[in-house]
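Weekly modeling sync, notes
Attendees: AB, CL, MP (scribe)

Item 1: holo prediction request
CL wants a bound-state model with zinc ion before deciding which constructs to order. AB pointed out that an apo prediction alone won't tell us much about the pocket. Agreed to run with the ligand included and paste results into these notes for async review.

Input as submitted:
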Amino acid sequence: MQQLPAHSVYQVQESKETADAVAYAFLQNTGEPVQYPYKYPNIADDDVRIRILFTGLCHSDCLHSRGLWDPYIKYPSCPGHEVVGVVEKVGTGVTKFKVGEKVGCNPQRWMCQTCEQCKKGDNQLCSQNIGLYDDNNFGGYSTHIQVAERMVFRIPDGFNDALGSPLLCAGVTVYAPLKRFYKPNFTCAVIGIGGLGHLAVQYAAKLGMTVTAFTTSKNREQEIKRLGASNLSSSIDVESLKAEQGKYDIVINTLYIEDEDVFKSHQRLTAPTGTYIQVGAPPSKVNFKLDHAYIILNQIRVAGSLIGNYDETQEMLEFSAQNNVYPIVETFEFEDFPKAFDRMEKAQAKFRCVVNVGKWAQANGLWK
Ligand SMILES: [Zn+2]
Ligand SMILES: [Zn+2]
């Protein structure tokens, strides 16, 4: 086994036998994640330690681990922000959760509860928001995670743990803005049927809207219709986009297409006084080009959205359990973490990757 570097908070162990947890950590900005056994410092009063059952992989994990967001990232680094697990241990001040309860974590590790955004309920925009993983904290690519009680979610009865972990990022990213702006009789355009879009189709349909899926995957028509879309249309053909202009009360765009004609055609799908929601993020240094004439003359509301706030996330979990909304996933064993990451990084997965962590952790004596 290679010599593992020290971490600023966790104590690296020589083997899993003496460890509290085993992560898959990146040791530098290239290569695969490796197993990293570690011990936690004492549990803080308001912390909850979670045995991870299933963890989802999200593309932003690559951007972080490869140093594409922050070139000064410190290694070892363990990403992961789509966690479903069971409470293993609680700090002395924890009141909301008990050992043995099913819980989840989303991309946010902390909210201050005192800044202006937190007071308005928009805690995802908290001025002290830190991600589920950063230089000092490991994320969900691990057998365990320790998070402040205020950022832990209750997993509702009947929730499908094996499929559901990606909802904590991908699910709420589309559920929250649809829920904010929808009415049940609305028409809804979902642009891009990938990891986000295939969930947006399901939520929009279950909320009662009539959904058209804009995609290049016409060959997947049956599958996309089974998710709840009534119609399919091209996401890149300007002529056919033109034919759909102004028809949709809500447009949710999970793509960012650099071709200006196509991107503006996406905006023009929005009906007069309708809402255009952009959740697909462009690469840094690329700016959105809005069709100002169309937006002004038709009184279009343009909305951005970042994951969802605490209440929206909890509500999304309940809505998903009740309405059977789950992503289509590829599932991997814990030891195949590097393989799962590789598929996700190369965008080969259909549609989200999930790792069964609990099975390995239990079999290897990490549920102590
Ligand atoms: Zn994510
Ligand atoms: Zn705050």
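Recorded for review: The radius of gyration is 21 Å.
Action items: CL to compare against the apo run; MP to circulate these notes.
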